[in-house]
Structures are given as structure tokens and as C-alpha cells.
Design goal:
UDP-n-acetylglucosamine1-carboxyvinyl-transferase, Chain; 2 domains; four-stranded mixed β-sheet; 25% strand; binds uridine-diphosphate-N-acetylglucosamine
Length: 445
């Protein structure tokens, strides 16, 4: 059973594509300054993994500061499909995984790549997992080979057939694992599996994202023994006895905060964002300063202010602590307004420039050659009807809509709602002219 915090209710991704005709849209009248304070929600990419980690114990788990977003609702569906009991009460999520079975519900899994994260905990706890090959954002090939290779190194026997992954392990055994690349999801999956394996596991070339530290802290609060998260070597001593329940508050979402900061920079005005952990956002804040935005930090508050006049940038997405790929689309949208030519290189995903076609429809001058986008600013963006293709592409269209003259109508809100808790409501509260239109009211052209 779930209950959200207010009027906002996320649109859910449908399996097998979506029909936009009956879906809500977002309407934005751009070129307004933003002023005021916005509360930053809990981190999507941490919460989803902590939800998976809750499967490691039969005891009740409480996760606080949970954002009310589509991906959380979907992950609840995954956990409930496995037999766990979940209740979302405002921003507090209760999970009790007393009796589980190993087969994850196909539809919920297909909607979201993060559902692969239940593999490690289920193999560790039940010795078996059956899961459909996961879905997720359309941003290029996103294999799970590193997850599977790592689980095999821990002793699991894994079979991939008919679109399903079937894993079995009498008892996982600690191992030395060297990841070919620092995959966030593989690092987390292996940490969770290793937490209940026999002996010690060492993960080398591990991802260093702040969300990995959250997984470590969560497991340790359950009685696990993990150290090294935040560095490229993580050591996990498997715990023989059962892990216990936990009451845990999630860190703020650095990507939501970054997105809102970009909105403030492109619109001009004076916006404060809190809570943020500024170390998690240093490179984004530094790039906004380089672009000419005013940025101040006061404890857990980030202030972004200025007149919306911006300079061009060179950006290259990298694993943490580099520039996050999840901020690349929003920044490309922002740079269409900069006074000069920006170069943006995407190194993490093979096909993460889908937002560019839609930005061009709004008048942006951007060329893409492989993984490099050249953004020639300043463009006079004009409002248009556009369609979001994935989560951060949707956020980029919001940024562009705020910067454009006239009305922008964004379709594909199920992508935006996967990862942002009432983004339109938060922006409207600081002066943006932005409304969600439900289909019956859809008087947009
Ligand atoms: C997580 C984030 C996502 C972010 C990404 C990179 C969640 C729910 N999602 O995704 O928002 O964009 O980190 O910061 O936390 N790869 C392989 N084989 C694998 C796994 C990954 O080749 O087995 C490749 C991927 O295709 C991708 C790159 O590694 O090109 C990075 O992926 P990864 O770090 O695993 O991202 P996710 O955990 O899926």
C-alpha cells in the first residue's frame, strides 16, 4: 500500500511503449526569473539500491527521505512481487521481506534497469534468483555482463535464456573481483551479495559514487562489514548470522539539486536549494561558476543567482567524481543560451544525445558527431511541442522550456516522473510558469 506526500502523482511507464494521447503533458511559458527556496528530495539512485538491500534481512527496514517518484513505486512493485511487504507513508518507506520467493515480476522489472539490483541480495539470501533482462532508459546499450561476471566469481551459476537470467548458488563464496569498468550498479549488486557470502570479497576498480557509500552504510547498519566505499577498492567480510533490520535516512539527490541549479542559472534570479551535500556536487557547481552563474554555499544550502547571461563550457562526462552523465542533457540545454560555442563529450553512454533532436525543434544549433555535441549559442529558443525520450532528456526539455520564448509542451512525462518528485510544482513555487495538464483539460495545440 502506498500514499504519497501531496497532490502530485507520478505517471508510470507502461511496458511495451506508451501512447502519448491519453497522457498528461507539461506546459511551460519561458523567460521568467526564479526566486525563492526549493527543497531537494532524497536520492533516487540511493533509495532504489537500499530497497534492494532490504531483501537481505527478514527484519523490518525503514527508509526515510524517500522521493515520491515512478521508479520508487516501480521498485515497490518488484519487492512486493518477490513477497516483501512494503508501505510508503509520506516519505517513509517500510519494507518487511520475511518470506521471499526467487522470481521477480516481469513487467515491473522490464520498466526499470535498477531492478537488476535484487539479484545480489536474492542469491545471497535464497540461493536463487530468476529475473527478466531489465529495461530502462533508451540511452544506448546497457549490458549487465559485469554484474553477472561478478556474481559468477562469487560462485553463482548463471544461465541466460529466453530473455531471463536464472542464477543459483548453494552458498556464495567471497572472491577477488576486478571490474572492467567502474559500474555503479555492478559494484552495488556485488556488495550486497558479498555481505552474506562466506569469507572476504574485494572489489577492485569499484565505482566511487556517493550512492555506493549509502549502500555500504545501509549494510553496515544491518550488521554487515563493508569498508572502502568511496574509493576504488571495497572490502566486504561476509556475515555468517542473519542481518538485522535498519532505520535509515537517505542522502539528498545530487542530480535533482543539479537540475534545479541549472534551471536557476538559465532563468536568472535567486534560488536557494537545500538540503544538499556540497561535496557531491562540486564539479557541477564549479561548471556553473565557470559559466558565469553566481553560486554560494552555506552549510547544506546551495544558492544560485544571476541574470541568466552565461558563458560557453567544455564538459566531459566521467564516473564520479567527474562530471555526471546524468547532468549532461540538462547542461546541453542550458548551453544553448550561452554566448559562444560549447563542446560536450559523453563518455559513459553510447547514445545519450536523444534530447538534441527535440532541442533543435526549439531552435537550438547543436551538431552531434558520435559522442561529441557542439552547441552553438546563444540560440533564441522558441517554445514547441516536444517529446521526452528518457529521464534526463525530459529534464533537459524542462530547462529548454524555461529558457524559451512562448509555450513549450512536453510529452512523455512518465520519463520525468520516474526520477523527479513534482519538478513542475517545485519550479512553479519559485516563479516558473509551468503546469501539468491532464488529458481532459488538454487544450494545448
Ligand atoms: C547508474 C545510475 C544512472 C547513471 C549511471 C552512471 C542508478 C539506478 N542509475 O546506472 O543514473 O547514469 O549509474 O553514473 O543508479 N556497463 C557494462 N556492463 C555492465 C554494467 C555497466 O558495460 O554490466 C556499462 C553501461 O552500459 C554504461 C557504463 O557501464 O555504459 C556505466 O554503467 P553503470 O555505472 O553500471 O550504470 P548503472 O548502474 O546502470
Amino acid at each position: 500500500m502506498t500514499a504519497g506526500p501531496g497532490a502530485f502523482s507520478p505517471v508510470r511507464v507502461q511496458c511495451g511503449g506508451h501512447g502519448t494521447a491519453a497522457m498528461p503533458t507539461l506546459s511551460i511559458e519561458g523567460r521568467r526569473q526564479l526566486r525563492g527556496h526549493i527543497r531537494v528530495s532524497g536520492a533516487k539512485n540511493a533509495v532504489l539500491k537500499l530497497m534492494a538491500a532490504s531483501l537481505l534481512t527478514r527484519e523490518p527496514c525503514v527508509i526515510r527521505n524517500v522521493p515520491y517518484i515512478g521508479d520508487v513505486l516501480n521498485m515497490i512493485e518488484v519487492l512486493e512481487g518477490l513477497g516483501a511487504r512494503c508501505q510508503l507513508d509520506g516519505d517513509v518507506l517500510y519494507i518487511e521481506a520475511r518470506d521471499l520467493h526467487p522470481e521477480a515480476p516481469r513487467d515491473a522489472v522490464r520498466r526499470m534497469r535498477a531492478s537488476i539490483q535484487v539479484m545480489g541480495p536474492l542469491l545471497g539470501r535464497l540461493g536463487e534468483v530468476k529475473i527478466a533482462q531489465p529495461g530502462g532508459c533508451a540511452i544506448g546499450a546497457r549490458p549487465v555482463d559485469l554484474h553477472l561476471a561478478g556474481l559468477r566469481a562469487l560462485g553463482a551459476v548463471i544461465d541466460e535464456r529466453h530473455g531471463y537470467i536464472h542464477g543459483r548458488a548453494a552458498k556464495l563464496q567471497g572472491a577477488e573481483i576486478h571490474l572492467d569498468l567502474p559500474s555503479v550498479g555492478a559494484t552495488e549488486n556485488l556488495m550486497m551479495a558479498a555481505a552474506v557470502a562466506d569469507g572476504e570479497t574485494v572489489i577492485r576498480n569499484a565505482a566511487r559514487e556517493p550512492e555506493i557509500i549509502e549502500v555500504q552504510n545501509f549494510i553496515n547498519c544491518m550488521g554487515g562489514r563493508v569498508r572502502g566505499a568511496g574509493t576504488d577498492t571495497i572490502r566486504i567480510r561476509g556475515v555468517a548470522g542473519p542481518l538485522g533490520g535498519v532505520d535509515y535516512t537517505v542522502i539528498p539527490d545530487r542530480i535533482e539539486a543539479g537540475t534545479l541549479a541549472v534551471c536557476a542559472a538559465v532563468c536568472g534570479g535567486d534560488v536557494t536549494l537545500s538540503p544538499v551535500i556540497i561535496e557531491h556536487m562540486e564539479i557541477v557547481a564549479a561548471k556553473l561558476v565557470e559559466a558565469g552563474a553566481g553560486v554560494e554555499v552555506n552549510g547544506e544550502t546551495l544558492r544560485v543567482f544571476g541574470d541568466g547571461v552565461l558563458k560557453p563550457l567544455h564538459i566531459r562526462s566521467q564516473p564520479y567524481p567527474g562530471f555526471p552523465t546524468d547532468m549532461q542533457p540538462q547542461v546541453v540545454a542550458m548551453l544553448t543560451r550561452a554566448l559562444g560555442t560549447s563542446i560536450v563529450t559523453e563518455t559513459i553512454y553510447s547514445s545519450r544525445f536523444k534530447h538534441v533532436d527535440e532541442l533543435r525543434r526549439m531552435g537550438a544549433d547543436i551538431t552531434v558527431d558520435g559522442r561529441v555535441a557542439v552547441v552553438r549559442g546563444p540560440c533564441r529558443l522558441s517554445g514547441a511541442r516536444v517529446e521526452a525520450s528518457d529521464l534526463r532528456a525530459a529534464a533537459a526539455l524542462v530547462v529548454a522550456g524555461l529558457a524559451a520564448e512562448g509555450e513549450t509542451v512536453i510529452e512523455g512525462l512518465e520519463h520525468l516522473d520516474r526520477g523527479y518528485e513534482d519538478l513542475a510544482g517545485k519550479l512553479a513555487a519559485v516563479g516558473a510558469k509551468i503546469v501539468r495538464r491532464v488529458p481532459t483539460e488538454a487544450a494545448v495545440p
